[in-house]
């Protein structure tokens, strides 16, 4: 999507830093950033501002989804979920970029959960990445949300994150929440909260917001909870694995897959 103003949001972030004369060690809150944009560039959505703030924070893991560019997008350091300061290259850790191996902490958490009997957690990112590239499997015409280089993966909604934010063939928003094991009824409240945030802060007048829950198993309680909720659909996914024997061909050192 083209910029709403003469400059894209990522450049306006630099203008904000200059305008408020942000000092190297001073903290700035997420709300203060949003307020600056709301006062000067009211057409830019809060979600877009929040996503760019993460994109331009060198230690935010979410920036890998938003195509952070070395040097150009290395502006902030995230101190906590709500506060930021200017990036100091001489003192701060090296910036995270798309393609970096940043999942060690996540892998350790997965291992801990697996040892506690929750191995399916390890599939969450795989499921998210696969569905984001194959949203047509959920609904024809469904595409990943895009806005000024920000996409709908881990889209920020008031300090939390939507698994996948999509748009349908009519341009309406669709919030997709993933549960790699069983979907319980409590996920309905989570989904409705995300839908309400998108409706209030992201959607234009007349633009609707729907919700979709994808889980390995949909519980009876979740089915019952959603039976009276408008605009929410439930899907179960299945994993399948096929094997082919690998046979060595004469003259070749590597195995060849035989169909």
TrEMBL record:
The keyword Membrane does not apply. One of its GO terms (molecular function) is DNA binding. Residues 8-86 form the DUF7669 domain. InterPro entries: DUF7669 (IPR056086), Endonuclease_NucS (IPR002793), NucS_C (IPR048301), tRNA_endonuc-like_dom_sf (IPR011856). Residues 124-221 form the Endonuclease NucS C-terminal domain. Keywords: DNA-binding. The keyword DNA-binding applies. This is DUF91 domain-containing protein. The lineage of its organism: Bacteria, Pseudomonadati, Pseudomonadota, Gammaproteobacteria, Pseudomonadales.
């Amino acid at each position: 999507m083209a910029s709403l103003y003469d400059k894209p949001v990522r450049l306006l972030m630099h203008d904000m830093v200059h305008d408020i004369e942000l000092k190297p060690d001073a903290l700035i809150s997420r709300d203060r950033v949003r307020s600056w944009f709301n006062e000067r560039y009211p057409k830019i959505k809060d979600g877009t501002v929040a996503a760019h703030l993460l994109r331009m924070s060198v230690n935010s893991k979410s920036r890998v989804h938003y195509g952070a560019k070395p040097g150009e997008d290395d502006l902030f350091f995230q101190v906590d979920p709500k506060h930021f300061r200017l990036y100091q290259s001489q003192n701060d850790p090296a910036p995270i970029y798309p393609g970096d191996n940043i999942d060690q902490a996540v892998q350790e958490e997965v291992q801990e959960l697996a040892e506690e009997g929750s191995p399916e957690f390890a599939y969450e990112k795989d499921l998210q990445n696969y569905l984001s590239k194959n949203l047509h499997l959920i609904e024809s015409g469904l595409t990943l949300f895009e806005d000024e280089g920000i996409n709908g993966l881990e889209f920020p909604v008031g300090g939390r994150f939507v698994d996948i934010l999509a748009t349908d063939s009519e341009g309406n928003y669709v919030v997709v929440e993933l549960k790699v094991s069983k979907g319980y009824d409590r996920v309905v409240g989570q989904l409705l909260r995300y839908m309400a945030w998108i409706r209030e802060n992201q959607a234009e007048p007349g633009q609707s917001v729907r919700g979709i829950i994808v889980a390995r198993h949909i519980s009876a309680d979740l089915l019952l909870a959603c039976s009276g909720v408008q605009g929410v659909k439930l899907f179960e996914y299945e994993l399948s694995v096929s094997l082919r024997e690998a046979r060595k061909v004469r003259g070749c050192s590597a195995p060849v897959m035989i169909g």
